[in-house]
Amino acid sequence: MAGTLRKRALFIVNPNARSGRRPIAPVREMLESGGLTLVDAAPTDGETLSDVISRMRDACDLVIIGGGDGTLNSAAAGLVETGLPLGVLPLGTANDFARTIGIPADPHDAARLILSTEPQPIDLGEVNDHLFFNVASIGFSAELAGELTEKAKKRWGKLGYAIVAARLLARSRVFTAYVEHDGSVEEIRTMQVSVGNGRHYGGGMTVEHTATADDGRLDFYSLEVDHWWRLLALLPSLRKGTHGKWDDVRAFRTTEVIVKTSKPRAVNTDGDLTTWTPAHFRIREKAIRVFAPSNGNRDFGLIGNVRANAVS
Predict the structure, then answer these.
(1) For a 10 Å CB count at each end of the chain, is N or C smaller?
(2) Which NCBIfam families does the entry link to (predicted)?
């Protein structure tokens, strides 16, 4: 970090993240040697990470968060309110947001990136006033989020998603939803509706293979399948983000969409159930700034060693 004054970084590590208990001292030393003064803080009773950021806004110049997508989600409102730039140390189960914007999976390499890049403007999604980094879903993914416990995440990692998903598939059923967007209203029968801001979600799934977190668009898709086994055929495309080409997948891009259901259904935002239908989605363009490679320098397939070399 250039300049004669050391920048103050609010430093928050979620000890409950899957990798949150790994030795963090070397990462701290790297950041401090690079010119940062780390200010430790943690939520008190009843506080969220957003509350901590708002409370400490005058004591820091940036925020560094060690954790996964759920940890980042808890900090989103505070980052938007204060305008403080964000540095990410990926310590969670999936780290889908980090992968989307080209942050290295290794925390040491991620720390080097914080020290060597300028913060980039990043969009956020919003549903019923709840912000999200990656994706918000109704249906199967929301049921998965409700059943995938923190204990299972920490024990099984990404495999935990597959174990619980397999159990849920056999009993999943389609539901009716009404989708309003761009001047039209459509009635659909679907197993899952998803609205993505970034590219990756769910520990390896892809919302849309060309999506970025700074394109000013939401990517909508609906899995309109008749039988659960149809999802097995779709799985390779869901991982690649090319499912929009299938006849039983409805997909489009927009900046705002409303999803209504006959009875309230839970909405999953970045892995946590946060609100219910009717769900009003919209894009929040350039809502926060994140230390990341510029858009043209991101390599979404080779996050690890390539990024380590790029910032060394």
Answers:
(1) C
(2) PRK13057.1, YegS/Rv2252/BmrU family lipid kinase
